[in-house]
Write a structure and sequence with these properties.
With 404 residues, the chain is of the alpha+beta class. The chain contains 15 helices and 16 strands. The strands form five sheets. It has a five-stranded mixed beta sheet. Strands 1-10-11 form a three-stranded mixed beta sheet. Strands 2-4-3 form a three-stranded antiparallel beta sheet. It is globular. It starts with 7 loop residues before the first strand and ends in a 9-residue tail after the last strand.
């Protein structure tokens, strides 16, 4: 009896391939659409839009925040809506049907609200339909949208029963993110300092992709960007039950859509079928030396909740040693902007803007070579270019806490 030998993948190989595909090894050429860059990341976290602008801009040659905003509000190749984990993301408009179908199929956990606050399934459907109707051809603030939803459903939708930020929100807002997943809602341009919502143009959501096809395709897209990965990592990325993710992986494997590999000597890791080519790199990086001509820089600055820092696993390898305590908040990634050196987190940073200038304070967790110091300076300059500001580098302790 013989056992088929699985492809053997090392951390260095996986890290190199992920950075390559994320445009972190080499930024995308200027003629690559920003939507393609965002698609390669599987969305750019945009709870704070400036962080998303940096995530996208730092991956693209010459792009600035103005280019990201133009793609979002002018040519509409990007959509700001609710993505993985119900959090705000920038997504490619042409991929919205896939995202909507896949995210709508993700099972929800137990509601955090008591029974008398929750919506029934029928009420949820009524609210989502009302949101879509209200936003058709309109751009509304949250208060305006609330009035429209209550008028279309009933007074029960407007009951102030949801505790939120020392305030009480109306009942219907429990499913705001679900309306985004259903393609009934996305963000519109701010009206002054007020957030607005609108409905994606019909061209953005031509037809509803069937979840039966969307979920396996979504798994393969995730593994293309972040594989090898386990079902547990996929579940963590989506904030969905691990049992559901394991079943999805099992069904995908039976259908031939994904295949198992051995990662760092362990089984249970998966890649998209046929996607087993990884760069030939040593498991242990060589001692620092002068880079070869044309070698990709190994130093990158990633902003808050950058897709790579959130999704690349195992987290202990991405955040080695002191980085696990300094650059994470209770084990959660994204709370600090991070300094990436040769594919692993090697420090944190913070930028403070004043007019047309921004001071970028970087706290390395170890010594940097002369080459890495030079690359860090170049990265800081690039941060300034993306933010359309003159950037100054300060190497020292970052004294602000997470989310500062």
């Amino acid at each position: 009896m013989t056992t088929t030998r699985l492809p053997q993948i090392t951390w260095s190989q996986a890290s190199a391939r992920r950075r390559e595909r994320q445009f972190l090894a080499t930024p995308a050429p200027a003629d690559v659409p920003l939507a393609d860059v965002v698609g390669a990341m599987l969305g750019a976290h945009a709870q704070v839009l400036s962080a998303a602008e940096l995530s996208v801009g730092l991956r693209t040659t010459g792009a600035t925040r103005a280019d990201v905003r133009a793609a979002l509000w002018e040519d509409r190749s990007l959509v700001k809506t609710f993505g993985p984990r119900g959090t705000v993301h920038l997504l490619p408009a042409h991929e919205l049907p896939l995202w909507c179908a896949a995210l709508s199929a993700v099972p929800r956990g137990t509601s955090p609200f008591p029974p008398d606050v929750r919506l029934t399934e029928e009420q949820e459907e009524q609210v989502v339909a009302a949101i879509g109707d209200a936003l058709a051809g309109a751009c509304l603030t949250i208060d305006e949208l609330s009035e429209e939803v209550v008028a279309r459903t009933g007074a029960w939708a407007g009951d102030l029963v949801m505790p939120a930020f020392q305030d009480m929100w109306p009942r219907w807002r429990q499913v705001l993110h679900r309306a985004g997943w259903a393609g009934a809602l996305c963000f519109g341009p701010n009206r002054g300092r007020k957030v607005t919502y609108t409905r994606p143009p019909a061209a953005d959501v031509p037809t509803r992709t069937d979840a039966t096809d969307a979920v396996p395709a979504f798994v393969r897209r995730y593994l293309h960007a972040y594989g090898p990965a386990t079902p547990q990592h996929f579940a963590k990325w989506l904030a969905t039950p691990a049992g559901w993710a394991a079943e999805v992986f099992r069904e995908s494997a039976l259908a031939g859509g994904i295949e198992e590999v051995e990662f760092e000597g362990a089984r249970g890791w998966w890649v998209a079928s046929g996607d087993t080519e990884f760069p030939s790199v040593p498991s242990v990086p060589p001692a620092p030396s002068a880079p070869e001509a044309g070698a990709a820089p190994g130093v990158r600055l990633l902003p808050y909740f950058d897709a790579y820092a959130i999704a690349a696993q195992p987290r202990e390898r991405l955040f080695p040693g002191r980085a696990y305590e300094r650059a994470l908040a209770g084990g959660q990634a994204g709370n600090f902007p991070v300094l990436l050196v040769d594919g692993v987190v090697a420090g944190v940073w913070h930028q403070r803007r004043s007019g047309r200038r921004t001071t970028v304070t970087v706290e390395p967790l170890g010594s940097l070579t002369a080459r890495q110091e030079r690359e860090l300076g170049e990265q800081v300059e690039r941060v300034g270019e993306v933010l359309e500001a003159r950037a100054e580098l300060v190497v020292g302790e970052v004294k602000v806490g997470p989310h500062a």
